[in-house]
Amino acid sequence: MIEYENLGLLNKPFFEEFKAAFAATLESGWYILGNKVKEFETTYAQYHGSKHFLGLANGLDALTLSLRAFNFAPGDEVIVPSNTYIATILSVVECGLKPVLVEPDIHTYNIDPAQIEAAITPRTRAIIVVHLYGKSCEMDKIVAIKEKHNLVLIEDCAQSHAATFKGQLTGTFGEFGAFSFYPTKNLGALGDAGGLLCNDDALATTIRRLRNYGSDVKYYNELVGMNSRLDEIQAAFLLVKLQHLAQITEHKRALAAIYQEGIKSDFIKPVVHPDYFDVFHIYNVRHERRDELKQYLLDNGVKTDIHYPLPPDRQKAMQGIIAAQPYPISAEIHRTTLSLPCSYYHTKADIEQVVAVINKF
Ligand SMILES: *Cc1c(COP(=O)(O)O)cnc(C)c1O
Fold it and tell me: For position 124, which CATH number holds?
């Protein structure tokens, strides 16, 4: 059986380094906002050529705090893609703001820049783009819209560590790049972790306060904050993993290339274009008879996943929150998409076997 993912095997090559990092942190006696968090923040900011990275508890908090930093008025609108993981939209709702969904491009699965302007109203304050599956959005067009309408731009980079658009890393185009280091992500910790990339000193100070009860000087509270700190031990693990990110990325890209080359044209494969350096957090294909295909692959020893089975606008939790109108492109992607195994631990032989099996469907 070829599994879809196995986090133990994915992390196995790093076990010895993780153990050393754990031991060092344990012995340091400093478990919250210590040197490991500082070192990871500095290293991850430098990796992006950005001024600041603020470690936070998880990706959802990163998105939520990025919005909170601007003190938008209740009911202000935030544009989000209709085709995304629910967390993107939850962050908007959590801040008392109104999510306005914009449809994706059917080829890239990412927010369609051509449809953003029609969704802008006098109450629009921000756009959150999501670089889904590890492919950047069309950032030149999106930055132009942001500037023309004077909007805040936040990038949800939970799936796009190391991905670039025209040579520029995702997370560096807007006010904030919001990252998740959930264990399955391309840069994954061994528990929950996240953070925000930003270039602005004042915004960085606000986030530093918001994550720590509103305080950056102990016992003096400037803001009504929360507790959303990146854990010291997770920062130690992330420092190890970050050293291997290039190798993880290259491996996933090599596996994706085998699919891209080998899978028959009966299946709709991801588009590749020289402007985009894709990191394949997820390698998906689309097919009319997706559910049947998933079962066929399972019967033939290949486990798959679906990202995602039910679109945000059709989630029970979003009734009365998301405008009740059809989102046909998002619906079509959700109906037909299937994620194939593409983990750091999979071998080229694994992927060749998946190709052989899928081509006989
Ligand atoms: C994983 C993910 C998140 C949430 O990250 P957590 O760390 O699990 O809170 C947000 N957006 C997208 C697109 C994701 O894939």
Answer: 3.40.640.10
